[in-house]
From TrEMBL:
Stated name of the protein: Nucleolar complex protein 2 homolog
Biased composition annotated in UniProt, kind: Acidic residues: 56-71, 87-135, 184-210, 747-767
Domain of life assignment: Eukaryota
Subcellular locations according to the entry: Nucleus
Assigned protein family: Belongs to the NOC2 family.
Annotated Basic residues bias: 23-34
Pfam families named among the record's database cross-references: Noc2
InterPro entries with a match to the protein in the record: Noc2
UniProt-annotated stretches for the region Disordered: 1-149, 166-216, 727-767
Amino acid sequence: MAKATKQTKKFVSSGKLKQTIEKRRKYQQVKKKVAGREIRKAAKEKNGKGKHADETSDDEDDEDVIVEGDGEAGSKKNKGKGKAVDGESDLEEGADLNDDEDDGEDTISSIGEEDFDLDDEEGQDELDDPDVDEAEMAKQLAELEKKDPEFFKYLKDNDAELLDFGQEEAPAKKSKKQTKAAAQEEDEDEEMDFDGADSDSDEEEPEFDGIPEAAEPEKISVTMKMLRGWQRAMIEQKSLRSLRKMVLAFRAAAHMNEAGEEDFETRYKVDSAIVFNKLILTALKFTPVVLAKHIPYKELPNGRFKVSKVPKSQARLPQFIKSHFSTLMFLIKSLPSAPIAKEDEDESDASGLLLTAVSESTKLLPWVMDNKKQLKAYLKLLLDLWSSAADNVRIACFLAVRRVYVAGDESIKEMCLKNIYSALLPPLRLTSAHTLPALNLMKNTAAELYQIDPELSYTHAFGYIRMLAVHLRGVVRSGQADKEAFRAVYNWQFVHCLDFWSLVLAGSCDKEKVIESGGIASPLEPLIYPLVQIAIGVIRLVPTSRWFPLRFHVLHALLRITARTGNYVPLSPFLLEILDSVEFKRAKPKNASLKPLDLEYAIKAPASYPKTKIYQETLAEELVFLLGEFHAVMSTNIAFPEMTIPVVFMLKRYLKKGGASGKVNNQLKTLVEKIEVTRQWLEKKRRSVTFAPNDRAEVEAFLDGVPVTETPIGSWMRLQKKVRDQKRKEIEMASREENKRAPVASDDSEDESEGEEDEEEYDMEDE
C-alpha cells in the first residue's frame, strides 16, 4: 500500500474520516432501498396488480423514507450547530453596532441545508397537480385579497398568470402518474443531497482504499416553470416544503457571486438573470405570507409584535427563519448601494432590487425581534446604507430602522438612538453642493426618530448636547495658548450637530404639539436653554468677517427654535454686529471679478472675498433676510413695537452714515419700512385690549389665531422666500449641468481640499 500523503494524514487527524464513512454507508443503504422499490414496482406492473393503488402506496413509502432520513441527519448534525443560532447572548444597554460585525454572516455558515428541512402540516406534495380544486383555489385567492391586499396587488401586477390558475389549456397538464413519478424522483434526489451536504466542511476529502467514491449530485438549475410551481403551492397550501425549496434556491442565488462559490454546497444553481430577479422577488414577497400562516402574529397598537407559539410539529421553523434572514442580509450587503450619476440598465436593476430587499426585509421582523444578536447586525447594515446609499435607499433604510425602533423593547430603542447618531456624525465632516441634500435628509430622518419617544430620547440628547458644550469649553479655556484650538468648534461637523439638535428640539417642543397634548410640555424642553447658550458661545468665539457664514448657519438653527417653540431668543444683536464690521465701513469696497459666494455651502469665506463689493452684498442680503424672518416670527407678539425700537434705530443710523453700496442701502431701507408698517399695524390692534400686562394668559393669547403670513412683514417675507427658493433652484440646476460637463474626480478633490483647510483632525465620536 502506498504511503499516505500529507493531505490524507491531515484529514484523518481532523476526525472527519468516521463521519465520511458513515455518510457513504447511509447513501448506499438509501440507494439499495430505492433500487428495491423500483424492482418491486416493476414486478407489480408486470403482474398487473392494481396500478393506481400501488402508485399511492409507493409514494407513501417514499415519503416515509425521506422523513426518516431527514430525522437522522438532522439529529446528528444539529448537535454541534444549534449553538450558532440559539446561543446568542443579550445585548447590553447602548451596545455599539461595530462589535461583532459579522454576526449575521455566522448564522449562514453555521446552518447547513438540513436546517431547511421542514414538513408541511398537511403532509402533501405541492408539485403542479392537475386535479386541484379550482373552487378551492378561488377561495384561497379571495382570502388572500382580504388578508394581504398589498401582496395580492403585487401578484396582480407582476404575476397575473398565477392568479389565472385553472384556466390553462388541457394539453399542458400532466397526468397524475407523471406528476407522482416526478415527485418521487425529486424527493430521492433531495434525500441523497440532504445526506451528503455538509456546509461546514471546506477541506477537500482524499480518496481511501476500499471506500467507494460517491458521485457528486448534479445541481438543479432553477427555471421559471419551477418557480411557478413553488408559487402556486405557497399560495394554495401555504406550503412549507415549497418554501424550503425556494429558500434554498434563494440562498444559492445570494451566494452565486461569492469568491468561494465552489465550496458552497447547495442543490440549486441560477443560470439566468431573469430567473435570478424573479427568484429574489419571489423569496422576498412570498416568505412572509407563508410564515404568517404557520406562525401567526398580531401587531399591537403600540407597534410591538405578539407572535403565537411555534407548533411542536414545526419546532425547527424558527431556526429556518433565522438562517433565511441571515441570507437576506448577505444579499443586501452584496448588492451595489453607492449612488451612481449615470447608471446603466444592470446597475439600475440592482439598485431597484436593493430598494425592494430593504423594504421587504421589515416584513420578517415579527419572527426575528427576539434574536438581538441578529437584530444588531441587521441594524448596523441598515445604518451603513442609510449613511452612504442613494436617497431612495436611505429613506427605505430609515423606515426599516423606525420599524425596528417602534417594535423593539427599551434596550433596542436605545440601541437605535445611539447608533443612528453615531452613523450620522462621519458624513457631516465634508459638506459640498453634492453632499448637502443627502446630509439634510439624514438629519431630518434621524431627528424624526428622536421625536417618537421624547422621554426615552432625553438621556441621549442630554449627553450629546453636553458633549458639544465640553468641546466649546475646551476651546474657550485654551485662550491664546493654542491659536488653532477654535477649529475643534468651527467646522462643518459641529455646525451640523447644532442644526440637528435644533431640529430635534423644535420638532419635539412644537407649539402645536403642546396644544394637542393638552398643554403638557415635552420632556426635551429643558434642553432648549443649554443648546441656545452653546450656539451663542460659538457665535461669539471668533467674530472676524471671514467666519460670518458660520454665524449665519448657527442663527438659522436658533431662528428655527424660536419659530417652532415660541421661546424668545434675541437674535438681532448678533445680526446688527455685522453692520459694525469692517465689511460695511467702506463706502467704496473693492471691485473684484469673483463669483457670488453661496453661503449655503460655506462656513468660512475664502481669503479673496473680504473687503470686496460682492462679499458685502452677499452678507447684506443674508442679513436682511434673517432680520426680516426673525421679526416676522415675532410680529404677532404683543411686545413687537418695543422689540423693534433698537433695531430700527441702529438701521437708520447706519443708513444715515451711508457706509455701503446703493444696493445694500435699498435693501436696508425696505426692511425698515416693513418693520415700521408692522409696528403701526400692531399698535392699532393693541388699542382694543382690556387686560393688563401682568395677565400672562391674555398676553400669550393675543393674536393667537392670526397666522404670521397675514402681518405686513410676514406677507413680505413670504414673497422673499419664494424669490429665494426660485433663485436656489436655478443655482442648483446650473450646478448640475456644470457637474455633467466636469469630471467627477475634480469634485472629489475639491471637497477634500476644502475639508482639509477648515477642519482639524479630530472625531467627536471618540469623546
